[in-house]
Amino acid sequence: MDIKQIQELIKFVSRSGVNEVAIEQENFKITIKTNQAPTVVHATVPQAPLLQAAAPVATAPTAPAASTPAVPAAEDTSKYITIKSPMIGTFYRSSSPDKPMFVNVGDEVATGKVICIIEAMKLFNEIESEVSGRIVKILVDNASPVEYDQPLFLVEPI
Amino acid sequence: MQNNTFSTLFVGQNFIKLKEVDSTNNYLKKLTSNSEPLPEGTVIMADHQFAGRGQQESVWQTEPGKNISASIYLKPSFLPLKKQFYLNMAVSLGVSEALSDFLPHPVMVKWPNDIYYNKKKLGGILIENTLTGSTIKSAVIGIGLNINQQNFTGHLGAKATSLFQILHKEADLEFVMTKIFVYMEKYYLNLKSGKYEFLHQQYLKCLLNYNLSAGYRQNGRVFEGIIRGVEDNGLLNMEIDGNLFTFNFKEIEYIHTN
Question: What ipTM does this complex have?
Answer without folding.
Answer: 0.92
